[in-house]
Design goal:
Length: 345
C-alpha cells in the first residue's frame, strides 16, 4: 500500500510539473515560446510590367510554413513587408486567412505595395518579407527573405474641359491618380462668369462625367458640372463611388478686400507653385488683408518679420491709401517660402 502511495505521489508531482511548464490561451495550451515558421517567394527578382496593370495575373506567390508552439493552437499569421534599411520600423502587414499557406499578389497590388514602401519607379529596389506568427501574447518571426523589385509608374489622368478654357479636352487641365486607384485629384483654376465644365476619361469627348442625380455626385450621362466659384479649387473625383468634391485653397480676406467675411479665391501658378489673384483693394491707409487656407482661420498667413515676408498667424498686412474707388493690385503668395508681393497695376 505504501508503495502504491509513493507511485501515485510521484505521478502527481510529475503531472504538476508538466502543467506548470504549459501556458494557456483561452481553452488552448502551448508549450514554450514557439518555433518560428518560414516564408518563400515564387521569385526573388520581380520586374513589374505596366501592361499587366489591369490583369488578374499573379506577379508573386508567397508560401509559408507555419510556426510551431508545441501544441495545437489557433495561430494568426501575417506577412510583413518593409524596405531594406528601415529595420522593420514601419512594416506593411497583411493578415493571412485562417489555415492559409499561400498569398498571391497581382501586378497592380504588388506595384502599389512597392511604391508604398518607398521604392523608386523604374529602378530596382529591395524589399524584405517575413512571417509573423502569434498565439495570445507570444509572437515569433521567421527569418526575412529579400526580394529585388522594380516598380513602374501607375499614374493615370482624367481631363477637365470647360468654359474656363474653351471646352477643349485636348488642352484641358488634368486630375491625376498616382496609383490608378480610381481617385483623381488636382487644382483647377476656374475663371470667368461661366463655371460649367465636364470631366473626360481621355483628351476627347468619347467618355465624359457630368452632374449626377444628387449634389456631389457625377454620372457618365449627366449634364454640365458647375464649379462653386472662380479661383483655384482642389477637385477630387472618385470614379468608383461616382463622387466629386471641391475644396477651396488659398484666398485673400480683409476689410481692404471686401470685408472680413468675404474670401477672394486665388489661382495656382502650376509652374512655380505660387498663388495669385488680380483684384481691387480699397484702403484709407489703415485697412488690411490676410491670407487663409480653405476659407478657414485654422491656417492663415499674416505679416512676417521682414518686408514681403509672411508668418503663420501673423499680424494683418496694411494696404497703403488708395483712390476713393480703390486700386487694382496683383497679389502673389508663396505659402512654402512664406513670401508675398503686392504689385499695383
Amino acid at each position: 500500500m505504501k508503495k502504491i502511495f509513493i507511485l501515485c505521489a510521484a505521478f502527481c508531482a510529475g503531472l504538476a510539473l508538466m502543467l506548470a511548464s504549459c501556458k494557456k490561451t483561452g481553452s488552448l495550451a502551448y508549450l514554450g515560446n514557439g518555433t518560428a515558421g518560414a516564408v518563400t517567394a515564387s521569385s526573388s527578382k520581380i520586374v513589374l510590367d505596366v501592361s499587366k496593370i489591369s490583369a488578374a495575373d499573379t506577379s508573386v506567390l508567397f508560401t509559408i510554413k507555419s510556426a510551431s508552439f508545441g501544441y495545437d493552437a489557433a495561430i494568426t499569421n501575417e506577412l510583413q513587408f518593409d524596405s531594406v534599411g528601415d529595420n522593420w520600423a514601419k512594416p506593411v502587414s497583411v493578415t493571412m486567412g485562417a489555415g492559409a499557406t499561400t498569398l498571391s499578389y497581382t501586378t497592380y497590388n504588388f506595384n502599389t505595395l512597392a511604391m508604398k514602401l518607398g521604392l523608386h519607379i523604374n529602378a530596382a529596389g529591395q524589399v524584405q518579407v517575413r512571417l509573423k506568427s502569434t498565439v495570445s501574447t507570444v509572437t515569433v518571426y521567421s527569418d526575412p527573405i529579400t526580394l529585388t523589385v522594380t516598380p513602374f509608374s501607375a499614374a493615370s489622368s482624367v481631363y477637365v474641359p470647360g468654359a474656363y478654357q474653351g471646352w477643349s479636352p485636348a488642352s484641358a487641365d488634368s486630375l491625376v491618380s498616382e496609383t490608378s486607384n480610381g481617385i483623381y485629384t488636382g487644382v483647377i483654376n476656374f475663371t470667368g462668369s461661366d463655371l460649367a465644365f465636364k470631366i473626360t476619361s481621355a483628351k476627347n469627348w468619347a467618355s465624359a462625367y457630368g452632374q449626377g442625380s444628387t449634389s456631389g455626385t457625377v454620372s457618365l450621362s449627366g449634364g454640365n458640372l458647375t464649379a462653386p466659384g472662380i479661383g483655384g479649387y482642389l477637385l477630387t473625383l472618385n470614379t468608383d463611388l461616382l463622387t466629386l468634391i471641391f475644396i477651396p485653397q488659398w484666398s485673400v480676406i480683409g476689410d481692404a478686400a471686401g470685408g472680413w467675411s468675404t474670401d477672394t479665391q486665388m489661382y495656382l501658378n502650376k509652374t512655380n507653385n505660387t498663388w495669385y489673384v488680380t483684384m481691387k483693394l480699397t484702403s484709407d491707409g489703415t485697412k488690411t488683408i490676410k491670407f487663409r487656407f480653405k476659407n478657414d482661420w485654422g491656417t492663415n498667413l499674416g505679416a512676417g518679420s521682414g518686408t514681403g515676408t509672411l508668418s503663420a498667424g501673423g499680424s494683418n498686412i496694411t494696404i497703403p491709401a488708395t483712390a476713393s474707388g480703390g486700386d487694382t493690385y496683383t497679389i502673389t503668395i508663396n505659402p512654402t517660402a512664406l513670401t508675398y508681393t503686392l504689385v499695383k497695376q
